[in-house]
Design brief:
- The protein is of the alpha+beta class.
- The chain has a domain at about 30-195: Intergrase catalytic core (hpI Integrase, Chain A, Orthogonal Bundle), CATH 1.10.443.
- The chain contains 9 helices and 5 strands, in the order αααβββααααααββ.
- It has helices at about 30-40, 45-55, 60-65, 95-110, 140-150, 155-170, 175-180, 185-195, 200-205; strands at about 70, 75-85, 85-95, 240, 245.
- The strands form 2 sheets. Strands 1-2-3 form a 3-stranded antiparallel sheet. It has a two-stranded antiparallel sheet with strand order 4-5.
- A hairpin with a 2-residue loop joins β2 (about 75-85) and β3 (about 85-95).
- α7 (about 175-180) crosses α8 (about 185-195).
- The longest helix is centred in the middle third of the chain and has 14 residues, at about 155-170.
- The model is unreliable at about 235-245 (pLDDT under 50).
Length: about 260
Amino acid sequence: MKYLPGWPEANPFAKAERQESEEHPRHIPPAEDFWKVFDLTSGQDRVMFTAYLHTAARKTEIFQLIWSDVDFGRHRIRLWTRKRKGGLEADRIPMTRELEEALKEWHENRTSKDSQYVFNCEDTTPYGKGYYGKPFVRRYHWLKKLCDKAGVPRFGIHAIRHLSASILDDKNYPLSTIQSLLRHKSANTTSKYIHKLRGFRAVLDDAFRREPLPTAAAPEVRELPEPKAAPAQNEESRSRVGGSTKERPYLRLVRFR
C-alpha cells in the first residue's frame, strides 16, 4: 500500500484458509554428541566451534565477525544482528577465557593474514578454490560430514545456539542470564529455547514415586524387670523409705545350757 499505487487497502488474502503443515522440531544434540564432533576438529574449525558454543551466536554472526569486533583488552566480543526491527544492531558480550585464548592463538596463526574477517574459507578443492581466503557465506556439508564421522545424529550450526541455552538451563542459571547470552529482547523468546520445563520434572518424580509397601508391625517386646535377690540369712539389709535408711528387724537364736 505504501509503495505500490492502487494496491487494495483490504487484505485480499485474509479469507484464505490456513494450510495444513507438519512441524519438524529441530534436533538439539546432547552435550556428549557435540564434544564428539568437537574432538574431530582442529585449527580454524575448532575455534569456530568454540565461538558458537561460548557466544550462542547465530550462524551469520560468526561468519561476518571481523577482528575489530574482538576486544582482547576489555575481554568482550561484538556481534552484529539483523534480527531486530531497527535493522543492523551490535551487541557486546563478554568473552570466556577459553574463547579468548582460542581467538588469540588463531590470530597469531591464521592463514589469511590480510583478511579483516576472523574466519575465512580454507577449502583448496576445485569446488572451493574460488572462495579461498574469503569470508564464509554458507557451509553446507561441513557439519554433516563431521557428524557422520563422529557417528552421531546430524545437527546444524543453529542447534549449537539452542545447546548453549540448554547447558545453562541444566545448571540452573536464571532465565535472565540465558536471555542475556541469547540477546533476546523478550523473555518469552528465550523460553522457547529452553527445552525442559524447569522444576516440572522434579514435581512429577515426586508425585509418581512408588511408595514402599507397608510391612507388618513387629511385636512389641517388653523387658521384664530382673528379680530381686532374696536376702541371705542373718544378713543385714537396708531399704529406703521416704528418702531415709532404716534397719530391718531380724531374729537371733540363743542356745541355753
